[in-house]
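hiii so um. not sure if this is the right channel but i have a protein structure encoded as tokens and i wanna go backwards to a sequence. like what aa goes where. can anyone help
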């Protein structure tokens, strides 16, 4: 008998031991999974998994955002809730202002406003009292641009809030105009009074009504214009109270065609 090479025998024994170990692992620990019909082989699956792992997202085109239809309505705008709401004076209330003038054309002057309902409209009745007497008149209708505003002199500041819009805020510019009535009554095209102002600051109310509440100060100019020419101009400052919904103070400085005083101040002193 031919004698076997000891080195070859050792190699063959190691190989047989390794094969036996692999067979034992498969039998005892590895549960075969049924392959789906038509499933690719193991090598093919491994190749595809590797290719998928290295597939870079930057090579894919960006998704196209959905387009709004041509006839679709535009997106709704967010409600403007900044600033203070402006509300019209309610029916049945009374506002009393102490009025001082320079020079003192009227002594102990007081303006009293009262709102009533007439024919579906809110109307302002006014009483002007001073040391030598009093007078009563209808100021006008509480509505922006109403024809009754044409005859407003200084007491007409009570209707200014109808021109403020729905809200008032710091930095806001406010402007409006109404007819400047002729001396004998009536109106003329191109003859107007125009107010232009800016809300410049918020300050604590020093007055006797609602003291300590915050007021918005409007610094502006009242111009008397005829046929495009400015015939007169006065500085007019307004302090608006969001709590009472009305002007708490008015100050006019300058000579105007419809007033004799060069400085007029009205301060709210009573609200009922």
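sure thing!! here u go:
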């Amino acid at each position: 008998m031919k004698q076997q090479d000891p080195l070859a025998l050792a190699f063959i024994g190691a190989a047989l031991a390794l094969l036996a170990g692999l067979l034992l692992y498969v039998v005892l620990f590895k549960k075969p999974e049924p392959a789906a019909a038509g499933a690719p082989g193991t090598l093919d699956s491994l190749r595809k998994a590797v290719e998928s792992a290295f597939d870079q997202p930057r090579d894919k085109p960006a998704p196209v955002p959905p387009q709004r239809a041509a006839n679709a309505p535009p997106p709704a705008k967010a409600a403007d809730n900044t600033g203070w709401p402006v509300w019209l004076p309610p029916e049945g209330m009374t506002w009393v202002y102490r009025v001082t003038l320079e020079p003192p054309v009227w002594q102990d002057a007081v303006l009293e406003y009262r709102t009533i309902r007439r024919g579906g409209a809110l109307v302002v009745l006014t009483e002007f009292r001073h040391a030598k007497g009093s007078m009563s008149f209808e100021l006008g209708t509480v509505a922006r641009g109403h024809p009754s505003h044409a005859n407003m002199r200084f007491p007409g500041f009570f209707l200014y809030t109808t021109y403020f819009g729905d809200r008032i805020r710091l930095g806001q510019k406010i402007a409006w105009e109404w007819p400047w009535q002729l001396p004998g009554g009536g109106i003329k095209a191109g003859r107007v009074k125009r107010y232009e102002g800016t809300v410049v600051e918020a300050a604590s109310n020093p007055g006797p009504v609602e003291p300590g509440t915050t007021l918005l100060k409007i610094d502006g100019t009242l111009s008397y214009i005829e046929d495009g020419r400015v015939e007169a101009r006065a500085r007019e400052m307004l302090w608006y109270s969001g709590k009472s919904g009305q002007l708490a103070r008015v100050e006019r400085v300058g000579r105007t065609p419809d007033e004799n005083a060069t400085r007029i101040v009205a301060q709210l002193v009573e609200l009922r």
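oh and The CA atoms of residues 27 and 181 lie 112 Å apart.
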